[in-house]
């Protein structure tokens, strides 16, 4: 017989057991438990059909329709679980811990799997996430990296993460770099629910009262909103300024943004055109002409000095307004300096 478990127990089991979302691909894409796999009982069209039957003919007819749709797919459905659960132990969930997960758990149990079903399904997980953020500030201590565009804040974060430090890469989770150029070279952003789920999952491995590093952000990244508890915690954190000369920043921007099939030049041109109300149509034309002639560094340097720097207003060199100011022209040295600073804080 399968076993019902709480969402908290399920999250604890994720390190050792695969977790499977039984909902339709559309539901899965909207939001899921980070790390979960999708083995849907019904695809998007089938779910819509069953929903229509339920609405117009009632639950019993809907069950028969679901059975009719599922029956031919059952062998493939079970084999999918064999591929992901090599030891035949699995955690499953549906929307609210109802008939979909009951049916799947019963079939898998019959086929010899040890099945753990999440009580309340994804709805319980969503409640868990909302409860995590339902406070003024989080019980962690933020170290926020500030600095002008191109100083390497994300590079520093990712390097420190590889060293074992607690890092919250909000732009990475949002798949958006937080500016008018933020979507260049990025995959589609998650929805708001998934963004919140990803943030919550990052904190599961952080001990209470421990430090975590984060890039200073506005409340909104692209179309996504940073939960207030996270934003408030960042605002009360220790502030570090990163700085670098314009040449170093320009080269970093070229490396980070201009990597696609055409060097992302088409997307960069479109982004520049969206700046017309800030820099004027004449300057947009001039910059796009420079792009066309291959003078990419000149374009980036102009945008840094005449658009981004006045917008963000960070110092271009050391400042007493910050706990620590770090030159990132040598990234390795910068990371080492920040790592030593964090280690001293933690003593």
TrEMBL record:
A GO molecular-function annotation: tRNA 2-selenouridine synthase activity
Domain Rhodanese: start-end pairs: 13-134
The entry's keywords: Selenium
One Gene Ontology term from the biological process aspect of the record: tRNA wobble uridine modification
InterPro entries: AAA_SelU, Rhodanese-like_dom, Rhodanese-like_dom_sf, SelU
Name of protein: tRNA 2-selenouridine synthase
Pfam families assigned to the protein according to its UniProt record, in alphabetical order: AAA_SelU (PF26341), Rhodanese (PF00581)
Organism encoding this protein: Desulfotruncus arcticus DSM 17038
């Amino acid at each position: 017989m399968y076993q019902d478990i709480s969402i908290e127990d399920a999250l604890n089991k994720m390190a050792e057991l695969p977790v499977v979302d039984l909902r339709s691909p559309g539901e899965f894409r909207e939001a899921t438990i980070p790390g979960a796999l999708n083995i849907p009982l019904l695809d998007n069209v089938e779910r819509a059909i069953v929903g229509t039957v339920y609405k117009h003919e009632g639950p019993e007819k809907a069950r028969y329709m679901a059975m009719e749709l599922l029956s031919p797919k059952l062998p493939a459905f079970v084999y999918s679980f064999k591929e992901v659960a090599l030891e035949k132990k699995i955690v499953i969930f549906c929307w609210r811990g109802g008939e979909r997960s009951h049916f799947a758990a019963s079939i898998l149990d019959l086929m010899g799997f040890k099945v753990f079903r999440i009580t309340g399904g994804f709805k319980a997980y969503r409640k868990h996430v909302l409860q995590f953020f339902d406070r003024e500030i989080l019980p962690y201590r933020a170290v926020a990296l500030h600095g002008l565009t191109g100083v390497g804040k994300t590079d520093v974060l990712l390097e420190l993460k590889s060293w074992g430090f607690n890092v919250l890469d909000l732009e990475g989770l949002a798949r958006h770099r937080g500016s008018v150029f933020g979507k260049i070279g990025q995959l589609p952003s998650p929805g708001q629910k998934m963004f919140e789920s990803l943030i919550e999952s990052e904190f599961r491995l952080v001990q209470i009262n421990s430090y975590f590093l984060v890039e200073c952000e506005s409340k909104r990244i692209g179309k996504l909103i940073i939960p207030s508890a996270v934003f408030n915690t960042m605002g009360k954190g220790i502030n570090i300024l990163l700085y670098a000369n314009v040449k170093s920043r320009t080269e970093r921007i070229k490396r980070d943004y201009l990597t696609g099939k055409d060097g992302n030049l088409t997307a960069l041109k479109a982004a520049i055109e969206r700046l017309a109300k800030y820099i004027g149509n004449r300057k947009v034309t001039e910059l796009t002409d420079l792009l066309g002639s291959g003078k990419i560094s000149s374009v980036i340097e102009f945008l840094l000095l005449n658009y981004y720097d006045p917008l963000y207003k960070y110092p271009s060199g050391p400042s007493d307004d910050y706990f620590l100011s770090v030159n990132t022209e040598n990234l390795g040295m910068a990371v080492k300096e920040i790592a030593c600073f964090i280690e001293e804080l933690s003593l």
